[in-house]
Amino acid sequence: MTSSELKRLYQITAVKLRYGLDDFLPDDPRVKLPKMMRKSLFWMKNEYADQPLGVRLRLALQELGPVWIKFGQMMSTRRDLFPPHIADQLAMLQDQVAPFDGKLAKQQMEQSLGGPLETWFDNFDETPLASASIAQVHTATLRSEGREVVLKVIRPDILPVIQADIKLMYRMARIVARAWPEARRLRPVEVIREYERTLLDELNLMREAANGIQLRRNFEGSEMLYVPEVYSDLSSERLLVMERIYGIQVSDIDALVANGTDLKVLSENAVTVFFTQVFRDSFFHADMHPGNIFVSRENPHNPQWIALDCGIVGTLNREDKRYLAENLLAFFNRDYRKVAELHVDSGWVPKDTNIDDFEFAIRTVCEPIFEKPLAEILFGHVLLNLFNTARRFHMEVQPQLVLLQKTLLYVEGLGRQLYPQLDLWDTAKPFLEDWMSRQVGPQAVIEGVKTRAPFWAEKLPELPELLYDSLRQGNALNQRIDTLYDNFMENRRHQGQARFYFGIGATLVVCSAILFSNQIETYPALSAVTGVTFWLLGWRACRK
């Protein structure tokens, strides 16, 4: 380790001890020696012993800084790996990070643009509008159009910090993997690898720009969701320029009420927008925490959502969408046999899973849930219980479903915060049933024909030539088959001859040996020569 790594390791260890995170270590003989060594080097006591373990972990990550805050946010999405009392606390982590100097931010922007900021922008505000773990945002006016924009810039020198902390995370993960038997299920090294990939992707703001453009195009003209315009010609890997929006942050309930916002419609629109993204577009905003979601002040009787920060998006393929929709419909129709069969058919659990046992496990977990009125059932937690039950049957972690689960929990949480009486299932079920009917019913056939019609129209003029080529190739193939058959039969005839000659030759050689043993003088030699001759004939037949 370098001196800087040792210094950082000391800081991390000190924070860990002050928050009593030693409690995460298993009661295992293999960790007793490291604990004793730690106590001999660090005499720090737990200063937050009165706080639950999840709270202490959240506070420690906040103190360790941006990389660890982001790591905690990522871990909060892995409810398949962490118990609720940990995941719930980690989900509360927000990017409340101290901003860096506005002059330095301006230098970073000019470096990305390749010239003075005044060439493209007026009224640049060096005081940041918002500051997060990876980037911070400033406001300005676009000189060419006079429109207000925001400029999001990556924090300077963040990459070396990320790389150093990631390296230490890998070291700690490998130690945990060796010392803790439960680590085989938690897979700490794989968790760090997934986090590293996610974090490095977020350092490229062009990915966020592309996601924002796609999401905006999907909801062009929609009254339910607005996505700010991205100025891609001014954006780069370290700078994102986009339209500035004015709205009410979704967590500010008092402001929404003061604006006359219809909270019931707003909540139902959130559900519709989410399922539209998932099932219509297969492209959904996967970071819908309150800091990224605003509500337009206009038209409060039919309020419009505004989505920011498209750095993390999720996608589902056609099969995943179909199986997910069928699972949800079967689940709320209490057809647990269908749920179990769908999990096996989709490959989410092993093919040799006992369907009867799996069905019984699902029923045991879910029937108590349905004893409540439907409006009181937490839809996101239903999905979570379903995945947790499947995990006991060795369900493989599906990254796209983990993102979906996290986003659904966000959406339902927002909806219930805005309108506690929200019946998410009442809103979602018609959408799912309509989508399923369009996938497997007559409408699906019509849609399939419409989708393939341009391809068929393009190939139609080539049909006679393609038909002629197919017939010619068929004739050529038949001729080749006939030739191969004739060759096969000829080879078979020669092999028959060879076996016949080898058989006669072997018989004559054996006879020669018998005659010779009986001391008959002339015939043994003649029989042996004749036998060898037949062998030569058999060898010649094999060579043909």
Describe this structure in words.
The model has no long low-confidence stretch (mean pLDDT 78). A hairpin with a 5-residue loop joins strand 3 and strand 4. Strands 1, 2, 3, 4 and 6 form a five-stranded antiparallel β-sheet that branches. Strands 5-10-9-7 form a four-stranded mixed β-sheet. Strands 8-11 form a two-stranded antiparallel ribbon. 29% of the residues are buried. The longest helix is centred in the last third of the chain and has 55 residues. The chain is elongated and about 125 Å long. It has 21 helices and eleven strands. Helices cover 61% and strands 7% of the residues. By secondary structure, it is α+β, with helices and mostly antiparallel strands. Among the domains are: 136 residues, no CATH class; 126 residues, no CATH class; 61 residues. It comes from Photobacterium atrarenae. Keywords: ATP-binding, Cell inner membrane, Cell membrane, Kinase, Membrane, Nucleotide-binding, Transferase, Transmembrane, Transmembrane helix, Ubiquinone, Ubiquinone biosynthesis. Its main location: membrane. It is found in: Cell membrane. It is a multi-pass membrane protein.
